Amino acid sequence: MPKMKKTPTKEKPKENKKTEPTKKTVSPINLLRGMRDILPVDQPVWDRIRDGARQLASSYGFERIDTPIMEETGLFIRGIGKQTDIVEKEMYSFETPGGEKVTLRPEGTASVMRAYIQHGMLNLPQPVKLWYLGPMFRHDRPQHGRYRQLHQFGCEILGDANPVADAQLVHLGYQQLKDLGIESTVQINSIGTPEARKNYRDALQAFFRSRRSKLSDEDKKRLQKNPLRILDSKDPVVVEMKAEAPQIIDWLDEESKAHFMKVLEMLDEMNVPYQLNPYLVRGLDYYTKTVWEYYANSADQDLAQSALGGGGRYDGLAELLGGRATPAVGLAMGMDRMANLLKEQGSGSATEAAEIFVAQLGDQGRKKALAIFEELRKAGIPAFEAFSKDSIKAQMEMANKKEVKFAIIIGQKEVLDGTAVIRDMESGTQEIVDALKIVQEIKKKLGRA
Ligand code: AMP
Questions:
Q1: Domains along the sequence of the chain with CATH
Q2: Which among 37, 201, 256, 439 has the fewest CB atoms less than 10 Å away?
Q3: Paired sense of beta strands 309-313 and 274-276, if any
Q4: Ligand 1 near 152 CB (within 6 A)
Q5: Of 104, 48, 49, nearest to 72 (Cα)?
Q6: Tell me: the pLDDT tens digits for 214-241?
């Protein structure tokens, strides 16, 4: 036998604080401001919203479209308008290494219209009804219910000038909220054609100019650049002034007025509760005629004041983007705010929790348990497992924590006998069954046979 070398006893390193490398503390990286994670615990609420949206859109005859999250910056500047808050201060725009000027989409309509034009959807039977769902990006001031990555569900009806399209979309958004158990009221207005709006804009500008000294700096800027935005001001002085300010309804052309009346009549017919809001103009330049927003019927001021969704007609957008004139109307619902509301109401449905735990002992047991887990999954019976754990005790503790009704246990003996143990987790009683019939047995126990 070769002489074993004596392993040298390791000399204890002398403590020498000077030469020891100092351990750097690494600070954790957190979320960007205004962004958030949607954690597993919140996913059931989000699933309800997403699934509801999907079902509703297809039941109204909409087809899904996905557009890229990033588009050429010019699309939004042309579509949304240079003087709007979104384009002026909220866009995530940057230059790519290839020198393209791009923007993370702040909303969905401009992209949908771009796709409609680009793919020649004008040649399809009109109207084309499209829906989408996904994240949007706005470098807004973050606060509760206002995020820099927000999620919207949207529907667009392209190639339809009839007021029935507006009414159908107003109804769709209202119905989505209702299906989620959210009672809401629609605020609605008409902002007419661009010409009518220009005349109104001039009248509004003249009105506020004569009161300019009382305006805040922010509102003075708005007065100069986009006087309609003053109507959104929360400044109490402006709120008071507004009552005497000209109202757009008095400046509408006959066609827009008649269109608006028809929309309202249809909403009456469909029992959609609405309030006329003469100050609702919506932030984007592309809107024409009908505009609307949804507010929860809530005693909570914060909730009652933040819109859950909104929409409007945008008959001029196609031309702004270089397409043929196409009347269109769209709706965008704020999924984050719906999710917050549902959570606050405590009405998120729980995830369908698995009622089974598959436990194993030993290598053979583990292999067999994997196969059984797969059989259950294929039969539509979700199960928990902890295949990386060896100890049966640790697995049973986990099964208890998960509050499952039954645990299936496969050890060496069960592998040899072709059986499985089913343990009733509440009573602690155990039963040995034929491993080949495990799915049937479990179905019976869960009352699904
Ligand atoms: P908009 O077209 O800008 O009115 O957006 C439609 C809906 O999206 C709004 O009614 C809100 O519910 C939601 N929304 C807009 N901006 C944000 C944001 N920054 N954070 C969360 N939700 C938003």
A1: 40-193+253-345 (3.30.930.10), 356-445 (3.40.50.800)
A2: 37
A3: unpaired
A4: yes
A5: 104
A6: 999 989 988 888 888 888 888 899 989 9
